[in-house]
Design a protein that fits this description.
By secondary structure, the chain is of the alpha+beta class. The chain has one domain (about 1-220): Phenylalanyl-trna Synthetase, Chain B, domain 3 (Phenylalanyl-tRNA Synthetase, Chain B, domain 3). Helix content is about 35%, strand content about 25%. Helix 2 (about 30-45) packs parallel to helix 6 (about 95-105) and helix 6 (about 95-105) runs antiparallel to helix 7 (about 190-205).
Length: about 220
């Protein structure tokens, strides 16, 4: 992935994790992954006994500082609150998306997943100018926020921090090779990002036992 100097200048201390997994075929719901989800819900409720502890988590603080500039609330924080304090369950979706979402909740790190075979390489990590457009998962066209972190392939934007991933490269039941990308603003170490990627891989292996890491990098 190519990292622009503008991104480095705009976000000193930030980093982006990148992992490619192959052989990620999943066949329906995975019992072991479902058990792991229930255990994760229990662990999260034990870890965060009140909203002050949750908001004081180092990663949450880093994302809150980033999102505040856009008058936005970090959506992973909102998801955590619904599971920890409102008794909601982690939803059942495709195994790869569940693995990513579980790791997001466990580590509070913002992650996007993409079908590798849809992407047109090379990828570019850059900063939005405020006029770029792409189609979100919900099918709506979105303009990127000025100065927001974003990643594009040669056909267009695949994700941004504030607005999330695109529709074109989304993970589906047909996905056989996947890319996971972790956006980490300043205040989150590369070691934390690497640990997060390891968690995604461990969860993905439950749903797709033959999954293998083809590439793993942290860009800064």
């Amino acid at each position: 992935m190519y990292v622009t100097e503008l991104w480095r200048k705009t976000y000193p201390g930030a980093c982006v994790g990148f992992m490619v997994l192959s052989n990620v075929f999943t066949a329906g719901q995975c019992i072991e992954l479902k058990k792991c989800k229930r255990n994760l819900e229990i662990n999260l409720r034990e870890k965060f006994v009140n909203e002050e502890e949750l908001s004081g988590h180092e990663a949450i603080k880093a994302y809150n500082a980033y999102y505040k500039r856009y008058s936005k609330t970090y959506h992973v924080l909102q998801q955590l609150k619904s599971i920890v304090f409102k008794g909601k369950s982690i939803p059942d979706v495709t195994g790869l998306v569940e693995a990513m979402f579980m790791a997001e909740l466990k580590n509070c790190l913002l992650t996007a997943g993409h079908d590798y075979e849809i992407l047109k390489f090379p990828l570019k990590l850059d900063v939005g100018m405020g006029d770029e457009k792409y189609i979100l998962m919900n099918g709506k066209e979105q303009i990127v926020k000025r100065d927001d972190m974003m990643i594009a392939d040669t056909e267009g934007i695949i994700s941004s921090v504030i607005h999330g991933p695109d529709s074109r490269s989304r993970i589906t039941t047909e996905t056989r090779k996947v890319v996971f990308i972790v956006y980490a603003p300043s205040g989150i170490s590369q070691d934390v990002v690497l640990g997060h990627l390891s968690d995604i891989y461990a969860y993905a292996k439950l749903a797709a036992p033959d999954a293998k890491i083809e590439q793993q990098e942290v860009y800064s």
